[in-house]
Amino acid sequence: xPEMNIxxxxxxxxxxxxxxxxxIGLHSSAVSLLQKLVAGFVLANFAMLTPIxxxxxxxxxxxxxxxxxxxxxxxxxxxxxxxxxxxxxxxKEDITPVxxxxxxxxxxPVLAVMSxxxxxxxxxxxxxxxxxxxxxxxxxxxxxxxxxTLAIMMGGWASNNKYALLGAFRTVxxxxxxxxxxxxxxxxxxxxxxxxxxxDIVAEQQVWFIxxxxxxxxVFLVSSIAxxxxxxxxxxxxxxEIVAGFHVEYTGMKFxxxxxxxxxxxxxxxxxxxxxxLGGWRGPLVDQYPLLGAIYxxxxxxxxxxxxxxxxxxxxxxxIDHMNAxxxxxxxxxxxxxxxVTALVGKAVPADVSAGGRALVLFLSNVxxxxxxxxxxxxxxxxxxxVEQVSIDSSGAGG
Amino acid sequence: MNATPIIFLVVAALTLxxxxxxxxxxxxxxxxxxxxxxxxxxxxxxVLLDAGFMATVQLVLYIGAIAILIVFAVMLTRxxxxxxxxxxxxxxxxxxxxxxVFFVAISSLLWRTGWPALPGGDVGDxxxxxxxxxxxxxxxxxxxxVASVLLIIALIGxxxxxxxxxxxx
Lengths: 399, 169
Fold this sequence. Notes:
The structure holds 2 protein chains of 2 kinds. Chain A contains 14 helices and no strands. By secondary structure, chain A is mainly α. Chain A has a domain at 101-377. The longest helix of chain A has 44 residues, at 355-398. The model of chain A is unreliable at 1-7 (pLDDT under 50). Chain B has 2 domains: 1-83, NADH-ubiquinone/plastoquinone oxidoreductase chain 6, subunit NuoJ (Four Helix Bundle (Hemerythrin (Met), subunit A)); 125-164. Chain B contains 6 helices and no strands. Classes of the chains: A mainly alpha, B mainly alpha. Chain A binds chain B through residues 27, 29, 33, 99, 101, 104, 134-136, 139-140, 142-144, 146-147, 149-150, 153-154, 157, 160, 165, 168-169, 172, 176, 179, 183, 196, and chain B through 1, 3, 29-30, 33, 36, 52-53, 56-57, 59-60, 63-65, 67-69, 71-72, 75, 81, 125-127.
């Protein structure tokens, strides 16, 4: 008798659904279409219901960082606060501003959520649990995410509000430019795994890619935080500068949908980082029980999410010129350097070296690269300070 | 029954309608957004052709970068909310001639091309085959390198144009 495998439970359910549909006399192509629709429905709802928990988590953790209690009235530990918020958002008045482009105004938030939820189609929860394992998985995640930029522009423009339009303009300079280092950083794990298929990338990580490519992971995390547009890169909605940015005219649940998109996006990039750099579903005993992989994957995702929270509540907002300078003068050159070094070192290491040895060599090359870039930055900073000192001295002499 | 021809017909029809709307709607932003819809339709057709890589590149480059730059440029250049400009200027007949010539050229080219039947069944890893063919001296390495050099020239040229001159300091 074959060993009962709890990891195949969902696969079994999937097959059962197919068998049931076959029994009631549907054509096989219709059956597989319905199976895929149901699977997609479940997956999308998993992604969209997660924020009910992560919003609570975020508020609680942020409160702890700021020496407050956070939500503690609704339910145990304030766990049901998100439900109260949802009810509040739903019963609020839904206002469409005068002169707004109604259709685009309404499509905007939906497109934003769609672009984020679409990424979950290629994220492997376990070796057997993946929506669709296409051979361009990594590139697909970037491509679908790019639609989110368009959604924000549509929302900002259609609102017929100057602040909203300014928010949309900032979006272009931020999201489009931070896409460059993000894509280059994702090329490094692609190079190491020799595939863009998500499951192949996870399978190649006998040693997690965070060891072989720590700099690439750093670049990826920084540029993804900018892509989500949360602190310290929340210039899209800087309250003190442009009111609330692109969603200033949105009310009620439409505003809620924008928030949903942001929270799902933050969770999604945590999941991407966990899959690409932290070994995804890999962990002890995962060969016998594939379902354990999903638990490992979600644990790693939440660890990355906590790091994002930590960054969010600790750092102040960057200025807009610093934001652009950080991207074009630091992240882009660094990511290109990491890519070239990884390619050269990866080829230089003989093929018979074990995965651990290869990762160690790559790690040392990353450390060397980090030392070089930090010393370059220090020199640049000293030069900048000298120039500022001169200008202070000269203005003091003039006055 | 195979569903692919039906999906193709629906997607192709939607793409054509969107492309038609790009040149007929009066609002420039709407035209740009219909262009996005057209490009998306082309991406779906790439998927139907088993060219997943081309489809995602179509999304990243054309929707993620080029379409957004077009929308951005339109937003910056005119007050699109109030101002609906004329759709034709005095050079419309020149444009019509160029479009007609281009249409004849393309359709005659399509007419004369022999369409080889695709090998049926599993075609293997198309991304791997594409990558190999781009660096294979017997296949496409020279066009690939020429395109790269062209892009580098464009990049350096745009930096040279954007660089502040000496006199402006």
